[in-house]
Automatic annotation (TrEMBL):
Pfam family membership, one: HTH_31
Protein name: HTH cro/C1-type domain-containing protein
SMART domains hit by this protein: HTH_XRE
SUPFAM superfamilies: lambda repressor-like DNA-binding domains
Length: 79
């Protein structure tokens, strides 16, 4: 089941005109331990929880306001 955070990641990725693979490649160029293509895809569809390091990377690159993230169930974020 797609999460609200996953939907936001997908929406921002689409707004940038990037595929999941292109997003993963861009993140890999810019960040240490960036999430993989597979992980990003799983975040978007809700089959994998977003860990804090990945959340920080994705929120920075995709301009996701961390105050928005507070709307999501933060207790479900992987530690």
């Amino acid at each position: 089941m797609e999460s609200k955070l996953g939907a936001t990641i997908r929406q921002r990725r689409h707004a940038l005109g990037l595929t999941v693979g292109e997003l993963a490649a861009e993140l890999d160029k810019r960040y240490y331990q960036a999430p993989s293509k597979s992980s990003i895809s799983r975040y978007e569809v809700g089959t994998k929880q977003v860990g804090l390091p990945a959340l920080m990377i994705l929120s920075d690159f995709l301009a996701i306001n961390l105050d928005e993230v507070r709307k999501y169930d933060i207790s479900k974020l992987k530690k």
